[in-house]
Amino acid sequence: MPEIIEQPARPYVGVRRHITMTTFGEVADRISELIGWLAERGLAPAAGPFLRYHSIDMAADRLEVEAGVPVAEPVEGEGEILAGELPAGRYATVTHHGHPDQLAGVIGDLLKWTAEQGLEWDMTEADGVERWGCRLEIYNTDPRVEPDPNNWDTDLQFRLA
Known about the structure:
Blueprint: E1 3-7, E2 10-19, H1 25-28, H2 31-40, E3 50-57, E4 62-70, E5 82-86, E6 89-97, H3 103-116, E7 123-126, E8 129-132, E9 135-139, E10 153-159
Antiparallel strand pairs: 1-6, 2-4, 2-5, 3-4, 3-8, 3-9, 6-10, 7-8, 9-10
C-alpha cells in the first residue's frame, strides 16, 4: 500500500542521459560504474542506487533519465559523473517485490492512488512532456547477492507538490 513519507535532501553522484525505451541500458548500465568510481575513492553507497526520471515523453519515446548512487556526504563529480542532491520534501512511495519488468503496473497503481487522495505531483506537463521534480526507482536488492530479479525489492518515490 502506498504511503506518504518526508525525505531530507540526499546527496548523490550520477550520470544523466537522453534515451529511448530501447536504449535504456545506456543509463541503467552505468550504475555499476558509479559504484566502482565511489569505491576507487574509498566511498560506499549510502543507500540503494536509483534511476531518476527528469522528463518523460512517451509519445515521442524520449526520456531524460539519470542513474545515481546516494552518498553520505556531498562529493565532487568528475567528467560525466555529476554530483547532485535529491530534493527534500514529501514523497508518495510504494515498495515492489518482484521483477522490474512489472514496475509499469505498480507505477500506474501509485499514480491512481495519489489522484484518489487528491494529491498533486511535483511535475509539470507541456506538449505531452512530463517534467518531474523528483521521480525515483530505488533498487534495494544487490543482484550479486540475489541474482533472481523476481526476488528484487524496488522502491518508487515520487515527490509531491
